[in-house]
Write a structure and sequence with these properties.
By secondary structure, the protein is α/β, with parallel strands linked by helices. It has 14 helices and 14 strands. The protein folds into two domains: 30-85 and 397-442, Roll (Urease, subunit C, domain 1); 86-388, TIM Barrel, CATH 3.20.20.140. The strands form three sheets. It has a seven-stranded mixed β-sheet with strand order 3-2-1-4-12-13-14, with no helix packed on it. It is globular, with a radius of gyration of 23 Å. Bound molecules: arginine.
Length: 450
């Protein structure tokens, strides 16, 4: 009793001193970014000779032409296009092929939570450097995503703003059950999102919320990169899916459902999920239902290229690669149908399956499969922000929004491929990558190594 009182007093003092430090931090100066072009993603208009005035961590104003705004430090970015910081609503920042041992079974049997926690900040930094200033992390072991989010939010390490899902919820033997496909003598210990039955799934949602989840992720269907036989069969009953969504929404959390199969997609939409992830085999009825309910459809259509060229080399079981072949092409065809049907769609790469920092590669795929460049850019800005419930904070260069700004060389409306090479990144008013444009002579000298 006494001990806990002492502890409580010490804690209160510690919290008070942290708050004091935060309050004493010097206010950031007013900065004015100047660039040849700025894409207003809301109107689709390209502004020329654009100014973005940043006050602290927010955008104060956006304007076109005229002199430098009074009282602001000018950052001259030169011949670039400014856009809002990009958003990826489907990543897994705790792993990717670059941190694999190069062997599927060795990874499974030798890597643990500490290994994933150690690499996560590096993977977060790569994501930020690629211009993605906000991500939704839809599944991580051991609450690593919560710790990562918190360290970034406190300013202790650089990284994107993260909405964390904690452990993905799934049925025994399903896509979230890591022990599927291993000998029954092999036990994977640690925190797992495996939950069954109405009470079981409700409890799991509550536990995730308690541990810091911003969003709930569950596996409505089977998956590709897991060892169950099917790729698309439903893995929960309608009643279980209904219970997950009801419970999550009661706690004010949105729900993302992983689903490849047509039936599982419809079940998830009927249950009231906020987004369906992958959507590979969605049928006409599913498209109609999603439209009616305003459900976001998040297609990860770059993945197939990477899995088919690289995964055999990583020793991934052939059965998983065969499952990929069942969904890769049809997913892209259905992406096109979803665009034509005018569905709500957000930019969702599943980075982690392929290397973090490559997030921008999906823009070109989205255009190849039916979106205009502006639609593709909106999928990663305004639409993604709407799905996250953060339309008032991110996804647009508007006064009052976070000063999350990226710049690319060239015109992304003419070539979305420019978004694969982001030259400048500002997050919350802080420049994290790139900076003032150098005069041409200096740049040439720098390239010569002078
Ligand atoms: N995480 C997903 C799964 O294992 C990846 C699917 C990738 N394939 C694709 N065509 N999008 O199911």
């Amino acid at each position: 009793m006494r001990l806990s009182l002492v502890l409580a007093t010490a804690l209160t003092a510690a919290i008070a001193s942290t708050t004091a430090t935060a309050q004493q931090a010097p206010a950031l100066a007013r900065t004015a970014l100047h660039a040849a072009r700025l894409l207003d993603v809301d109107s689709g208009r390209m502004l020329r000779d654009a100014w973005v005035v940043v006050d602290g961590d927010r955008i104060a104003s956006v304007s076109e032409g005229g002199a430098a705004p009074a009282g602001a430090k000018v950052v001259e970015l030169g011949d670039v296009t400014l856009l809002p910081g990009l958003i990826d609503v489907h990543v897994h920042l705790t792993s990717d092929p670059t941190v694999s041992t190069g062997n599927y079974y060795q990874d499974a049997l030798t890597l643990g939570p500490m290994d994933f926690a150690v690499v996560a900040p590096t993977l977060a930094r790569r994501t930020l450097d690629a211009g993605f200033t906000t991500v939704r992390n839809v599944g991580a072991g051991d609450y690593i995503d919560v710790a990562l989010r918190n360290a970034i939010d406190r300013g202790q390490i650089p990284g994107p703003r993260i909405l964390a899902a904690t452990v993905p919820i799934g049925s025994t033997g399903g896509h979230a059950d890591d022990s599927t496909g291993f000998s029954s003598n092999v036990r994977f210990e640690g925190i797992t999102g495996v939950a069954n039955g109405i009470d079981g799934v409700r409890e799991r949602v509550r536990e995730n919320v308690k541990r810091g989840a911003d969003v709930i992720k569950f596996m409505a269907s089977a998956g590709v990169l897991s060892n169950e036989a099917s790729v698309g069969a439903p893995q929960y009953t309608q009643a279980e899916m209904d219970a997950i969504v009801d419970e999550a929404h009661r706690w004010g959390k949105k729900v993302a459902a992983h689903a490849h199969g047509a039936e599982a997609i419809k079940m998830a939409i009927r249950a009231g999920v906020d987004s369906v992830e992958h959507c590979s085999m969605i049928d006409a009825e599913g498209l109609k239902l999603a439209k009616q309910k305003g459900t976001f459809l998040d297609f990860d259509i770059y993945n197939d290229d990477y899995i088919l060229t690289e995964y055999a080399k990583l020793g991934v079981p052939q059965a998983q690669i065969e499952k990929e072949k069942l969904v890769g092409r049809v997913q892209r065809e259905n992406f096109r149908k979803a665009v034509q049907a005018g569905e709500k769609m957000a930019y969702a790469t599943d980075a982690g399956v392929y290397p973090h920092g490559w997030n921008g590669k999906q823009f070109a795929k989205e255009v190849e499969w039916g979106m205009t460049p502006l639609q593709a850019i909106r999928s990663a800005t305004t639409s993604a922000a709407e799905l996250l419930g953060w339309s008032d904070k991110v996804g647009s260069l508007s006064p009052g929004h976070y000063a999350d700004v990226v710049a690319v060389h060239g015109d992304p409306l003419a070539d979305v491929g420019t978004l694969e090479h982001v030259a400048f990144v500002m997050k919350g008013g802080q420049v994290l990558r790139g900076g003032p444009a150098q005069p041409k002579a200096t740049r040439a000298a720098a390239q010569r190594g002078a």
